[in-house]
Amino acid sequence: MPKPQAGLDYGEYLRLGELLSCQSPKSAERGQPAHDEMLFVIVHQVYELWFKQVLHELDSVMALFREDSVDERGIGVAVSRLQRVTEIQKILVDQLRVLETMTPLDFLEFRDLLVPASGFQSWQFRLIENKLGLRASEAGPSANDRRTIETNATLTEAEVQAQLAELAQTEASFAAVLDEKAHERLRAEGRRRLSHRATRAALFIHLYRDQPILHLPFRFLTLLVDVDELLSAWRYRHALMVHRMIGTKIGTGGSSGHRYLLATVERNKIFTDLYDLSTFLISRSALPPLPPEMERRLGFHYPRE
Ligand code: HEM
């Protein structure tokens, strides 16, 4: 064990002197301190510290997957780190409640001093989106079946047609799971991101997740969707807070405000391929058994002494 450094001090280790002198509310600088601006600054700083930790975890997970083959132990590490990311994300969603103890009127005391600064400019937030692989993508089609649509009395004729078109899309995705060329066409249209091989592997992992060796890969895929879902939850929660704080005013960064933010919730989903996998699941009882040799290779075997 390394020897503890003689005289190391709590405040020195955490560099509290610097950390605690990084809060400079603008209203105080202007000589008219707005009490709530300190909260506003600290809440944002805490977010940025958590973003730093999330990036630290994501970088390490990505490094594990950069190798040509991933050691089984690596998947365990990736799973526990992504699990950590999701726990942090839950705090990030909850933390907005602290900021909401500030009323819209109190916010007005210093809001104008912030222009043109905005959360828009949080480069760490953009980096998180970027590392997770964000790019604009379509939401996946729903798996309604034709008769349910056609006999749904609450739908207008136009809605029935729109839903049938969606169903056709779903059918096309089914074909694509089996047919590589059809999959590549969906990829070229931006409706799929994973390769055909990766999609089939992910589907296999989902369907046969009870096999011991697939437990961790299944947890990993599930966590990717959890991370994505929690990011969407944050986006939605932030949009609600913005609506209540500034109504329908435009943002300090110049966007349409809460309308812009609401639109990002659906538009910025990342792992839609993984969400869409559920379209192709069949019940356990209908699942074809694996060939015995493969079943043997997917299990753990302990020789008797
Ligand atoms: C009173 C509290 C807040 C208000 C009124 C507010 C308002 C807004 C608005 C209107 C936007 C859209 C861009 C613009 O036009 O400025 C935005 C974007 C953003 N805000 Fe906030 N915000 C608040 C608190 C926070 C907090 C605590 C965070 C935590 C880091 C945050 C992070 C972000 C991020 C990352 C974006 C960019 C989102 C994107 O483009 O997808 N905001 N905010």
Task: Please outline the helices and strands.
Layout: H1 10-13, H2 16-19, H3 26-29, H4 37-66, H5 72-94, H6 96-99, H7 104-108, H8 123-132, H9 146-150, H10 157-178, H11 180-188, H12 196-207, H13 215-246, H14 258-267, H15 272-276, H16 292-298
Helix pairs in contact: 4-5, 4-8, 5-13, 10-11, 13-14
Order of helices and strands: HHHHHHHHHHHHHHHH
Fraction in helix: 55-70%
Write down the overall geometry: flat
**CA(first)-CA(last) distance:** 37 Å
| SS field, number of helical segments | 16
How many strands in all? 0
Cofactors and ligands present? protoporphyrin IX containing FE
Report the mean per-residue pLDDT as an integer.
Answer: 90
Query: Approximately how much beta-strand content do the residues carry?
Result: under 5%
Alpha-beta content class: mainly alpha
Main beta sheet: strand number and arrangement? none
Radius of gyration: 25 Å
